[in-house]
Amino acid sequence: MDSFKDPSEHLSEHPSEETLKRFVTGVASSEESRAVVTHLLKGCAPCATKIRRLMEPESVAGGSYEKALDRFDQELVATLESALDPSPAPPDPHPRPLSRHGRGEEDKD
Asked: Is the model more confident about 9 or about 63?
Protein backbone atom coordinates (compact mmCIF):
# COMPACT_ATOMS: atom_id res chain seq x y z
CA MET A 1 0.00 0.00 0.00
CA ASP A 2 2.91 2.34 -0.65
CA SER A 3 0.91 4.12 -3.38
CA PHE A 4 -1.19 5.92 -0.74
CA LYS A 5 1.77 7.54 1.03
CA ASP A 6 2.41 11.25 0.83
CA PRO A 7 4.88 11.74 -2.07
CA SER A 8 6.81 14.32 -0.01
CA GLU A 9 7.71 11.66 2.58
CA HIS A 10 10.30 10.07 0.28
CA LEU A 11 12.01 13.41 -0.44
CA SER A 12 15.35 14.18 1.05
CA GLU A 13 15.65 16.79 3.76
CA HIS A 14 13.37 19.80 3.30
CA PRO A 15 14.96 23.24 2.89
CA SER A 16 14.85 25.29 6.08
CA GLU A 17 12.35 28.09 6.53
CA GLU A 18 15.22 30.58 6.29
CA THR A 19 16.42 29.06 3.01
CA LEU A 20 12.90 29.28 1.60
CA LYS A 21 12.67 32.93 2.72
CA ARG A 22 15.96 33.72 0.98
CA PHE A 23 14.75 31.88 -2.13
CA VAL A 24 11.47 33.82 -2.23
CA THR A 25 13.17 37.19 -1.72
CA GLY A 26 15.81 36.45 -4.36
CA VAL A 27 18.82 36.56 -2.05
CA ALA A 28 19.53 32.82 -1.89
CA SER A 29 22.82 31.67 -3.32
CA SER A 30 22.69 29.91 -6.68
CA GLU A 31 23.42 26.64 -4.87
CA GLU A 32 20.52 27.17 -2.46
CA SER A 33 18.19 28.20 -5.28
CA ARG A 34 19.11 25.15 -7.31
CA ALA A 35 18.49 22.88 -4.28
CA VAL A 36 15.07 24.48 -3.62
CA VAL A 37 13.99 24.18 -7.26
CA THR A 38 15.16 20.56 -7.42
CA HIS A 39 13.28 19.82 -4.21
CA LEU A 40 10.09 21.44 -5.55
CA LEU A 41 10.38 19.62 -8.88
CA LYS A 42 10.37 16.36 -6.96
CA GLY A 43 6.85 17.28 -5.89
CA CYS A 44 7.13 18.51 -2.32
CA ALA A 45 3.67 19.92 -1.61
CA PRO A 46 4.49 21.13 1.94
CA CYS A 47 7.43 23.24 0.70
CA ALA A 48 5.37 24.57 -2.22
CA THR A 49 2.69 25.62 0.29
CA LYS A 50 5.31 27.33 2.47
CA ILE A 51 6.64 29.22 -0.55
CA ARG A 52 3.14 30.34 -1.54
CA ARG A 53 2.56 31.55 2.03
CA LEU A 54 5.89 33.40 2.06
CA MET A 55 5.06 35.11 -1.23
CA GLU A 56 1.71 36.47 0.01
CA PRO A 57 1.81 40.07 1.15
CA GLU A 58 1.41 40.61 4.86
CA SER A 59 -2.02 41.85 5.81
CA VAL A 60 -2.32 45.33 7.21
CA ALA A 61 -5.02 46.22 9.67
CA GLY A 62 -7.39 48.62 7.95
CA GLY A 63 -7.61 51.06 10.84
CA SER A 64 -3.88 51.35 11.40
CA TYR A 65 -3.49 54.11 8.82
CA GLU A 66 -6.77 55.92 9.37
CA LYS A 67 -5.56 58.29 12.11
CA ALA A 68 -2.45 59.28 10.15
CA LEU A 69 -4.44 59.79 6.94
CA ASP A 70 -7.07 61.88 8.73
CA ARG A 71 -4.36 64.04 10.32
CA PHE A 72 -2.62 64.41 6.94
CA ASP A 73 -5.91 65.41 5.30
CA GLN A 74 -6.62 68.01 8.01
CA GLU A 75 -3.09 69.41 7.82
CA LEU A 76 -3.22 69.54 4.02
CA VAL A 77 -6.54 71.37 4.01
CA ALA A 78 -5.26 73.82 6.65
CA THR A 79 -2.09 74.45 4.64
CA LEU A 80 -4.01 75.00 1.41
CA GLU A 81 -6.50 77.30 3.10
CA SER A 82 -3.75 79.38 4.70
CA ALA A 83 -1.99 79.69 1.33
CA LEU A 84 -5.07 81.24 -0.23
CA ASP A 85 -5.56 85.01 0.01
CA PRO A 86 -8.54 85.36 2.36
CA SER A 87 -9.72 88.55 0.61
CA PRO A 88 -9.63 88.15 -3.15
CA ALA A 89 -9.57 91.33 -5.21
CA PRO A 90 -13.04 92.44 -6.30
CA PRO A 91 -13.78 91.96 -9.99
CA ASP A 92 -13.06 94.93 -12.27
CA PRO A 93 -16.36 96.77 -12.73
CA HIS A 94 -15.26 97.97 -16.20
CA PRO A 95 -13.35 95.13 -17.91
CA ARG A 96 -11.77 95.97 -21.23
CA PRO A 97 -12.85 93.86 -24.20
CA LEU A 98 -10.09 91.79 -25.76
CA SER A 99 -8.99 92.33 -29.33
CA ARG A 100 -8.36 89.57 -31.85
CA HIS A 101 -4.84 89.17 -30.46
CA GLY A 102 -5.97 88.73 -26.86
CA ARG A 103 -4.96 92.24 -25.75
CA GLY A 104 -7.05 95.16 -24.57
CA GLU A 105 -8.44 97.69 -27.01
CA GLU A 106 -5.60 100.12 -26.32
CA ASP A 107 -3.06 97.49 -27.40
CA LYS A 108 -4.31 97.33 -31.01
CA ASP A 109 -1.76 97.30 -33.82
From this structure: 63
Q: Kindly state the DSSP code that residue 65 receives in the 8-state scheme.
A: T
d(C-alpha 76, C-alpha 64), whole Å:
20
pLDDT > 70 fraction of the chain, expressed in percent and rounded: 65
* Cβ-contact 15, 35 below 8 angstroms: yes
Contacting residues for 59 by C-beta, under 8 A, at least 6 apart? none
- Whether the CA torsion 72, 60, 15, 48 is positive or negative: it is negative
Residue 100 sits at φ, ψ, to 5 deg, of -60, -30
Closest to 42 in 3D by CA, of 2, 12, 15: 12
